[in-house]
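Reviewer 2 asked us to include a model.

Predict the structure of this chain.
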Amino acid sequence: MTAPGGLPQHIAIVMDGNGRWATKRFLPRLAGHRQGMESLRRCIRACLDRGVPVLTVFAFSSENWNRPADEVSGLMELLATALAKEVPQLLKDGVRLHFVGERAGLSDNVRAGLDQAEQATASNSRLVLNVCFNYGGRWDIAQAAARLAAQGQPITELALHQAMAMSHVPDPDLIIRTGGELRLSNFLLWQAAYAELFFSDKLWPDFDEAELDRAIAEFNRRERRYGQTSEQLLPAADERKLA
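Predicted model (structure tokens):
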């Protein structure tokens, strides 16, 4: 897609603000993460209802290991619980799960849970849900380059792209960050090259269908030129109107 109009084919979200949501309510930070799971369920359902084929969410960054130990362990338990609870519904809804990130530092139980969830949903095709867990954009670029070097392949732009952990889906059209922060925080650095960015002041637990629709509406107002001029896009837009 170049000219304005249409549904983004790949939406990616930095789910920020769980801890602040809980702190504002004098609750432990983990309560915010639990509430954030409810928002994720709503967002998955909204993408299914609207026909978005790919959704990618930033669940746990490689830098999040620096958080307090009790929060990290709580997040790991939350992930294990969510996998057991959510996979049957995702399977029923036609959602295919991909977990993207470095698995070497995860426990055997967590790694097994990720593998089982991916295998259980492997034949689904209605929505691809990429969960970036223990992920970092710099890690992704480095591991792709290391893989090519180990294979003795030249490191070109195309080869790097194909070696990325997200090579199974197209690059995101729209990247949403909640929580009022205006940065990518090491998320999809390579893939974000031509993504439209939308920053929401809502904390992730408060993110709902209406805010998703607001982001999509803003996306549709933007002109995606990919280095071309507006005038160059006009013939393609006119052809779409006549079709």
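The chain has one domain: 10-242. The radius of gyration is 19 Å. We have added this to the supplementary material.
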